[in-house]
Amino acid sequence: MSMSACAINMGPDEAVRARISELIAPCGFEVERRHTHIEGAVHQSRLTPLCYFVFHLTSDFAPIHDQVEEIRHASDNRIRFAPLICFAANPSRADILRSIACGFDDVVILPTSPDQLARRLQFQTGRKIVYFATENYVGPDRRARLAALGAGSKSPQNGREEGGHAYRRYEILRDSMSGVQVLKEDVVDPEADAELIAL
Questions:
Q1: What's the CA dihedral at 47, 49, 55, 61 to 10 degrees?
Q2: 116: Cβ–Cβ under 8 A, 6 or more apart, which residues?
Q3: How far apart are CA 150 and CA 24, in angstroms?
Q4: Which long-range contacts link 152-155 to residues 24+ away (Cβ below 8 Å)?
């Protein structure tokens, strides 16, 4: 298998980076590079428009959260809406919930086979994906995944069922040629939606 994409290795140290490299090696990424700063990722996206940011869950989640926040608030759409993948070995339910809530596109529980991993990576491209940008979250529509873990919400507003601030809803498409295309962007007013539902 080969992928016309770059894997940006987000491992915090040499051992974790080596583990990530080992896991993604069968996927045949065109390029793998170590993450140093967001400007480097932007530069890489000009060479290989589709970039996957690949993490491995560790006991210290704070640095991972901060890196995800930086990526999701980048000004370049190829970075902001890039697929974020997190490997997790024997994660707790809380670990999975925290990763989904943070904005990861997929949490891959180890062990997994190369074929399974390849399918999950390919699932991030070639189809419309809904993203939300709220006052405290930027990432894919996480409601179905949270609901599957018994922590769902009807609202993308971090658990709010009504009220709250307006937020943005995006439809995006990823491919190896353009990286990320924003097909549609809407501003959603939760209070207005509630009034329409009432009617």
A1: 110
A2: none
A3: 30
A4: 155/190
CATH number at residue 106: 3.40.50.2300
Q: What is the chain's mean pLDDT, rounded?
A: 89
pLDDT, average across residues 65-92: 96
Query: From the CB of residue 197, how many other CB atoms can be counted at a distance below 10 Å?
Result: 8
Q: Is the dihedral of CA 101, 172, 121, 11 positive or negative?
A: negative
How do residues 95-107 score in pLDDT, each as one tens digit?
A: 999 999 999 999 9
At 140-153, the pLDDT tens digits run 998 888 888 887 65
Count structural domains, the chain.
Answer: 1
Reference 72, options 170, 190, 183, 186; nearest CA is 170
Q: For strands 179-188 and 167-175, give the pairing.
A: antiparallel
Instruction: Tell me the CA end-to-end span of the chain in Å, nearest whole number.
Output: 52
Domain extent at residue 84: 3-198
Cα–Cα distance between 6 and 166 in angstroms, integer?
34
- Whether this model's pTM surpasses 0.85: yes
Q: What is the DSSP letter of 105?
A: S
Token pair belonging to 154: 């009807």
